[in-house]
Design brief:
Layout: H1 16-32, H2 46-52, H3 66-72, E1 75-81, E2 86-89, H4 91-97, E3 104-106, H5 108-113, H6 120-133, E4 136-144, E5 150-161, E6 167-176, H7 178-210, H8 214-222, E7 233-240, E8 243-250, H9 254-257, E9 263-264, H10 270-277, E10 281-283, H11 286-292, H12 297-300, E11 307-315, E12 318-327, H13 335-372, E13 383-390, E14 401-407, E15 412-420, H14 425-443, H15 448-462, E16 468-476, E17 481-487, E18 493-495, E19 501-503, E20 508-509, E21 523-526, E22 532-536, H16 548-560, H17 573-583, E23 595-602, E24 612-618, H18 624-639, H19 646-662, E25 668-676, E26 684-692, H20 712-719, E27 722-727, E28 732-740
Parallel strand pairs: 17-20
Antiparallel strand pairs: 1-2, 1-6, 2-3, 4-5, 5-6, 7-8, 7-12, 8-9, 10-11, 11-12, 13-23, 14-15, 15-16, 16-17, 17-21, 18-19, 18-22, 22-23, 24-25, 25-26, 26-28, 27-28
Helix pairs in contact: 1-6, 7-13, 8-13, 13-14, 14-15, 18-19, 19-20
């Protein structure tokens, strides 16, 4: 019997390899039936016999009632002659397979080639087993129509044997299963979507948990890619005093959201209803919005959106904001989509509440730190200073580290760097009190050792169970001498003019507040013009991952690197150095302690020339020292090139020193300095100071003719170009100045 030609077209072309596999499969089927190509048994199917006018066996006839039932249910029938390998089907079977002409009359290999590559092996194995066992089989398979559409079908067949018990025919039914295919595809899509949503929730939870500030939360929310329902607009707001504050928005023009920022929330707005009910408000279309919220509709109608979801953000039983998800087209949300948005709203609410608390704490800490630390560093002629403060990366970001720069009488400047034990508000409060007290002691003119001893007693009297490390240095701006006192703190680092660095060992004492009677010793070292003193707290040079020696080595390496010249950049080289040192500190999220940094560069007097000076201590019982001092002063003035000042300076200095020795029971400090001002040519100015520890203020009086004293201040006033008295806390400083012509 001639077979109908195979339909042509792109969808019907079968690759040679697949045709070979299908032919091999058909051969395997015939072999499983015990047949060979040369052995064809004279058995014909009922359908074939009917078409050829051959007689049929009564057992093969189809009942009259079955055909209408099959037609009504869209079920087709097939008959596969296993010996001749001819597969025939009725018109409904052909329609189910998408064949043209309504006839199926082809080989098993051609049939298998029509199936989806994934389904053909399954069909072949089941048919082979049925042929071998003379049993039944069924399968679900997909096929591609000539039009390119994917369809699916199910078949059920039974193998019939000949008189010798060998497989001869398979007859059965086939029906369309495309609806089932669509259900499977939809189920697969839904499963993939559920997996995407589950993954999205995990990623959103992770991203929101890493958001620290409110700005971070807003950024994460407005960048979220919602799976399955990509929004066209997102807005995150916080609720404060009945007003909505816009924290972040995407998909909206600024002019669309700006009118709502910090404006009172209208009672008939969808956001207000979401806040009242504490449940999401879903609006599926523009008509629904206009009907439910007519008062809010005029302003919303211009945004171009067609569907909205308002999610209240509830944290700890309180509504803290609303987030808006909007779409350009009408959108009916199913239960899964509403659950997804509700879950997202809960995550955003918790993250926003945590971020608001963090920002409030940070603002409190920053405000408190601003109050505790000096707002500005005073400018002192002859020196340049730079300060930096870096808060710790965790906790309240406030601690007990501080710095201070204190202008002192006589043109000196005091440097303070310290660290109160602890990292909390209590430590910061103690730091503020101690900083003010130490600044007051220094401004009163106390020497460095006395300043530190009084600060230690002050902290001990507070009875806080806290101690503090501190370094206080008094810098003589005129001649670059530093008098440093250390209370358990780090030694200073000095950057020399040639770029080398050295750690200056300062005699140390106990931290402040441990022993009220602790006495501190002063260490003196000198600076040349252009040299820099670096003071810092231990957070810069010590951490869990870095020991103190390594930290100091890193600090010295950063300090010693080359700096730009003063004219090479608009930024002062000292600020460049401060930024460089601060930048090597750990990242703020990892830093365990605060860092305070104070740098001072001694620029020298005007013109860059250091003052020539003579400084001596006169003991209370060492009266002979006064005579030696007069001789040293004479020699110094001649050596400095101002011999014309010798007589007057010697007389007036002797008067001041004698007055200090007579009226106090402590030693006196004598200092003579010569200043040269290049702007005045060869002119010079001599300044002599005598410091004592008496609170008795000198009084100028007119002595009688027979009086043996009382003329000292009269001589000073008459002969000096200027004179005066300055307080020093526990004592005073008397001084006079003489000018020398060139």
């Amino acid at each position: 019997m001639a077979t109908e030609p195979e339909p042509q077209g792109p969808a019907r072309r079968t690759p040679p390899a697949q045709t070979a596999r299908s032919a091999a499969a058909a051969g395997a089927l015939r072999t499983a039936a015990g047949l060979t190509p040369g052995r064809i048994a004279p058995v014909v199917s009922t359908a074939t016999a009917a078409r050829q006018g051959l007689p049929t066996r009564s057992g093969d006839s189809t009942p009259d009632w079955l055909e209408p039932a099959m037609a009504a249910n869209g079920i087709g029938s097939f008959d596969w002659d296993i010996r001749r390998d001819v597969l025939e089907g009725d018109p409904r079977a052909c329609a189910i397979l998408g064949l043209q002409g309504g006839r199926l009359d082809r080989s098993s290999a051609a049939f298998l080639a029509m199936l989806h590559p994934e389904d053909a092996p399954v069909v072949r194995r089941r048919v082979e087993r049925a042929v071998t066992e003379l049993g039944q089989c069924g399968a679900y398979y997909r096929t591609v129509f000539p039009t390119g559409e994917m369809h699916a079908a199910r078949f059920r067949g039974r193998v019939l044997a000949d008189a010798f018990g060998r497989a001869s025919r398979m007859v059965g039914f086939v029906w369309d299963a495309t609806v089932e295919l669509h259900k499977r595809v939809r189920a697969g899509e839904l499963a993939a979507l559920r997996e995407d949503r589950s993954r999205f929730i995990k990623e959103a939870a992770r991203a929101l948990s890493e958001a620290v500030t409110v700005r971070d939360v807003a950024r994460v929310f407005t960048e979220l890619p919602l799976p399955g329902l990509p929004p066209d607009g997102l807005v995150l707001t916080s609720l404060e005093a009945g007003r909505l504050t816009i924290l972040g928005a995407s998909g909206y023009r600024p002019e669309d959201v700006h009118p709502y920022d910090r404006s009172p929330l209208a009672p008939h707005h969808p956001a207000a209803e979401a806040i009242r009910t504490r449940g999401p408000v879903v609006i599926a279309s523009r008509d629904e919005y206009r009907e439910r919220f007519p008062e809010a509709w005029p302003r919303v109608s211009e945004t171009g959106r067609s569907a909205w979801v308002f999610l209240p953000l509830v944290a700890s039983g309180r509504v803290i904001g609303v987030c808006l998800v909007s779409f350009d087209d009408d959108r009916e949300l199913d239960a899964d989509e509403r659950t997804l948005l509700a879950t997202l709203g809960g995550l955003v609410a918790q993250s926003l509440a945590r971020a608001r608390l963090h920002d409030a704490e940070h603002e409190l800490a920053a405000g408190l730190q601003r109050v505790m630390l000096p707002r500005t560093v005073p400018s002192v002629p002859g020196v340049t200073t730079a300060v930096r403060y870096l808060a710790a990366g965790s906790g309240l970001q406030i601690g007990g580290d501080w710095y201070d720069v204190v202008p002192l009488p006589g043109g000196h400047v005091g440097l303070v760097i310290g660290d109160v034990q602890g990292h909390d508000v209590h430590a910061a409060g103690i730091m503020g009190q101690l900083r003010i007290a130490l600044r007051a002691y220094a401004a009163e003119g106390h020497p460095p050792a006395a300043v530190m001893a009084r600060a230690s007693r002050f902290l001990a009297d507070l009875d806080t169970d806290h101690f503090a490390t501190c370094l206080y240095a008094e810098v003589n701006v005129d001649y670059g001498v530093v008098y440093a006192v250390r209370a358990g703190h780090l030694d200073p680092v000095v950057r020399r003019a040639d770029g080398t660095t050295t750690v200056v060992p300062v005699v140390g004492g106990l931290p402040l507040g441990i022993s009220p009677d602790q006495e501190y010793r002063v260490t003196r070292f000198s600076l040349d013009p252009g040299e820099t003193v670096v003071l810092c707290t231990d957070g810069l040079v010590e951490s869990r991952a870095m020991d103190l020696d390594t930290g100091f080595a890193r600090l010295r390496e950063a300090v010693s690197r080359e700096l730009p010249g003063r004219g090479e950049s608009a930024v002062d080289p000292l600020d460049v150095l401060a930024d460089r040192i601060a930048s090597q500190a750990a990242d703020s999220t990892e830093r365990e302690d605060d860092i305070a940094l104070l740098l001072l560069r001694w620029d020298g007097p005007a013109g860059g020339l250091a003052a020539q000076q003579l400084r001596r201590r006169i003991g209370q019982a060492d009266l002979a020292r006064i005579s030696e001092l007069r001789g040293e002063l004479r020699d110094a003035l001649r050596r400095w090139g101002v011999p014309g000042l010798v007589d007057t300076a010697e007389l007036l200095a002797s008067e001041l020193v004698t007055n200090a020795i007579r009226h106090t029971d402590r030693d006196a400090m004598f200092t003579a300095r010569l200043y040269r001002d290049p702007a005045q040519g060869a002119g010079a100015r001599l300044r002599v100071e005598v410091e004592d520890e008496s609170d008795l203020w000198p009084t100028r009086r007119t002595p009688g003719e027979q009086a043996s004293s009382g003329r000292g201040l009269m001589l000073v006033e008459a002969l000096a170009d200027g004179w005066g008295v300055e307080p020093r806390g526990s004592g005073k400083r008397m001084w006079f100045e003489l000018s020398a012509e060139g």
